[in-house]
Amino acid sequence: MILGNLPYLKTLIIRDCIIRDHNEMIVTFYSHLSSLTINDCHLSINDIEFLLAQTPSLVYLKLGSCREVFDSIFDGSSWEKFIIANISSLKKFEFLFSYTLKNNNAMPNINSHIESFRTPFWLNEKRWFVICDYNMQQKIINLYTTPICITKTDYLSQSLVYSFSHFVTIRWAVLSMNTSHLPILSWTDGLFDINDIEIHNKIKLRSIPIDDNRTKYLSDAMQTNTIITQLDLRHNQVGVLGAEYLAVGLRYNKTLQQLNLALNQLGDEGAQQIANLLQNSTVL
């Protein structure tokens, strides 16, 4: 409606919008629009693509969105193909996409989604760099361009930030074509970093629950961590595979002194994996 009544509009900043049945709409190209910001977008990925396909002259695009499903909006390859085909003039693309896992949701393969942004298109041609955070306690995945494109006063951040809390966050950064890309551990208020060294040497993740897949991400991040001295994973769902991940990841860690895996699902085989780790460790 706005674009239809203002065909010469160059910049549009809105909180959200609604697109009705595509079949009932007349496809019109808004060739003057060069900058579009949707701060709290609830459109489906199909509606987003439908809208953007009508704005071929976009130079700047900013999208903020809390998603109900982990859809192709998190996929760099899909965006790459769409941008090349429909909005090839785009110079700057800023986004924050957030997804909260429900109890029955399967954990997405974050590694494969991160790799979809590690291409010459993203890193060399466009120089759009991406970070993915997984907040372990809140089970929230935040995918965003860096530097982060929102502030604590923005509407979208109000649903993601917990001002008086701190969360263990596993972070993947896509900043180069380098194939060595283990995640790191960070502490956030749900979105923004907390730089308080006093909370950085202990991790308490009781009754999250953490399963084997989540254990893999945590173990990867622990490989290069040089701060954590205590890791408490009591009362989770760490099984045999999770124990194997921990044994591999912590093999390279030189600072962890205490590991608590009580009330998990290790079994004899998993317990043996941890026993081997302890036997070969010089600090645990």
UniProtKB/TrEMBL annotation:
Q: Which SMART domains match?
A: LRR_RI
Domain of life where this protein originates = Eukaryota
Q: Which UniProt keywords apply?
A: Repeat
Asked if the Swiss-Prot or TrEMBL record annotates the protein with the keyword Hydrolase, the reply is no
Q: Name one Pfam family in it.
A: LRR_6
> What InterPro entries does this protein's entry cite?
Leu-rich_rpt, LRR-containing_regulator, LRR_dom_sf
Q: Does the keyword Iron apply?
A: no
Which PANTHER family does the protein's record reference? LEUCINE-RICH REPEAT-CONTAINING PROTEIN, LEUCINE-RICH REPEAT-CONTAINING PROTEIN 34
Name by which UniProt lists this protein: Uncharacterized protein
